[in-house]
UniProtKB/TrEMBL annotation:
Pfam families: DYW_deaminase (PF14432), E_motif (PF20431), PPR (PF01535), PPR_1 (PF12854), PPR_2 (PF13041)
Protein name: DYW domain-containing protein
InterPro entries: DYW_dom, E_motif, PPR_At4g14850-like_plant, PPR_rpt, TPR-like_helical_dom_sf
Domain of life: Eukaryota
C-alpha cells in the first residue's frame, strides 16, 4: 500500500506528499522493505531531490537489483553518467545481476553525459556478459546517444535497422531522431522521422510542429507555414506546454503567455526587471534559434520571456523564501533560451533552481547548470 502511494507521488512529482509518505514508512518500520525503499529512491529522484535518493540508497546494507536500478536511473536523469557507470560496476562486483531496466538506466546515463564509447560497450556486453537480450528501448538509447553528440548519420542508420514491437516503441525511437534532427538542422532526416510518426498515428502534433520548426530554422518559411496549415486542416492540435511548482500542499500551474493568475502583474514586473539585469550580463533573449517565426527581435524576446517555466520561476521567487531550493516541473523539453536565462537568473538572485523537463533534471546554481550545457 505504502509503495503504491509513494509511486503515485513519484509519477506526479508530489514532493510534499512523498515526504509525508516517507514519514509513514519510518513510523511503521518499513524501511527494510526492498519495494518501499526502491520507490522512495525513485520518488526523491523524480522530485528533484537526488541527494535524498542517494542518502536512502547508501543506508541499504545489501541493495537488490530493484534498488540499484532505481538509483542508476536517478543518476542518469541528473546527467551523472559516470556515477551511473560506477554503480553498475559495483552491483556486478557484488553479484547482483542487472536486468533490462538497469541497462536502460546506465545507457541513459551515458547518453546524457556524452559517454558514447562507454555506452556502446554496455550495449555490446548485454547478451554476452549478462544474458540480457537487447531490445528496441536499448537501441533507442544508443540512437539518442549518437544524436546528442551530433552523429546524426549513425543514429539514422541504426534507427532504420531497429525492429520495434509496438507503436509506442516506434514513437520513442523516431521522436528521438526527429527532435535531434531539428536541433542539428538535418531536415532530410526530420522529414523521414516525422513521416513515420504521422503514418503510425503517433505523436502526430509533435511531428508536424517539429518538422515545421526544422524548416523554419533553415529559412524555409513557406514550407514551415504550409505544414502548420496542413496540421490545422487535419484538425491536429498540439498539447499545450505547461510548468508547475509545488508550494506547501498546493500546486500552481502556468501556461506560456498566460498571466491571468494570482500575482500575474508582479510576475511580469519581476521578469522585466530580471531581463534587464540579464542583458547587462550579455544575455540576448530570443536569439538562440528557438522562436521560429518571421518576427522582429523585440517580438521574439517577448515570446520567449513568457514561456511557462519562466512564469513558474518568477512566481516561485516571489512566494518561496530565500534559502529554499525552487523546483519547477515542465511537461516538455526546456528550450535553450530559457536554459540560458535560468543560468543567468540563478547568478543574479543567488538561488538554486531545479527544473525537471521531459528528458532530465537541470540544477541551476551560481550562473551554471549541472548538465554542463550538454542536454
Amino acid at each position: 500500500m505504502l509503495a503504491s502511494v509513494i509511486s503515485a507521488c513519484s509519477s506526479l512529482g508530489k514532493l510534499v506528499a512523498g515526504r509525508a509518505s516517507h514519514g509513514a514508512v519510518i513510523r511503521g518500520g518499513h524501511e527494510v522493505n526492498d519495494v518501499v525503499t526502491s520507490t522512495l529512491v525513485d520518488m526523491y529522484g523524480k522530485s528533484g531531490c537526488f541527494d535524498y535518493s542517494w542518502k536512502i540508497f547508501k543506508r541499504i546494507p545489501n541493495p537488490s537489483v530493484v534498488e540499484y536500478t532505481s538509483i542508476i536511473v536517478g543518476a542518469s536523469k541528473y546527467g551523472l553518467g559516470k556515477l551511473s557507470i560506477e554503480l553498475f560496476e559495483e552491483m556486478v562486483e557484488r553479484g547482483v545481476k542487472p536486468n533490462d531496466v538497469t541497462f536502460v538506466g546506465v545507457l541513459h546515463g551515458c547518453s546524457h553525459s556524452g559517454l558514447v564509447d562507454e555506452g556502446l560497450g554496455f550495449l555490446n556486453s548485454m547478451l554476452e556478459k549478462h544474458g540480457v537480450e537487447p531490445e528496441a528501448k536499448h537501441y533507442t538509447c544508443v540512437v539518442d546517444m549518437y544524436c546528442r553528440v551530433g552523429r546524426l548519420d549513425e543514429a539514422h542508420k541504426l534507427a532504420k535497422s531497429i525492429h520495434v514491437e509496438t507503436p509506442a516503441e516506434g514513437a520513442l525511437l523516431w521522436g528521438t531522431l526527429l527532435s535531434a534532427s531539428r536541433l542539428h538542422g538535418r531536415v532530410d532526416i526530420a522529414q523521414e522521422a516525422s513521416r513515420r510518426l504521422i503514418e503510425s498515428n503517433q505523436q502526430v502534433a509533435g511531428a508536424y510542429v517539429t518538422l515545421s520548426n526544422a524548416y523554419a530554422s533553415t529559412g524555409e518559411w513557406e514550407i514551415a507555414h504550409g505544414l502548420r496549415s496542413q496540421m490545422k486542416q487535419a484538425g491536429v492540435v498540439k498539447d499545450p506546454g505547461c510548468s508547475w511548482v509545488e508550494i506547501r500542499d498546493s500546486t500552481f500551474v502556468f501556461h506560456a503567455g498566460n498571466l491571468s493568475f494570482e500575482r500575474g502583474e508582479d510576475v511580469l514586473r519581476l521578469l522585466r526587471e530580471l531581463e534587464g539585469r540579464m542583458k547587462e550580463r550579455g544575455y540576448a533573449g530570443g536569439s538562440l534559434g528557438l522562436v521560429f517565426f518571421e518576427v522582429e527581435q523585440e517580438a521574439k524576446e517577448e515570446i520567449v520571456s513568457l514561456h511557462s517555466e519562466r512564469l513558474a520561476l518568477a512566481f516561485a521567487l516571489i512566494v518561496i523564501p530565500k534559502g529554499i531550493t525552487i523546483r519547477v516541473m515542465k511537461n516538455l523539453r526546456m528550450c535553450k533560451d530559457c536554459h540560458e536565462a535560468f543560468k543567468a537568473i540563478s547568478g543574479i538572485v543567488e538561488r538554486d533552481f531545479i527544473v525537471r523537463d521531459v528528458n532530465r533534471f537541470h540544477h541551476f546554481r551560481d550562473g551554471s547548470c549541472s548538465c554542463g550545457d550538454f542536454w
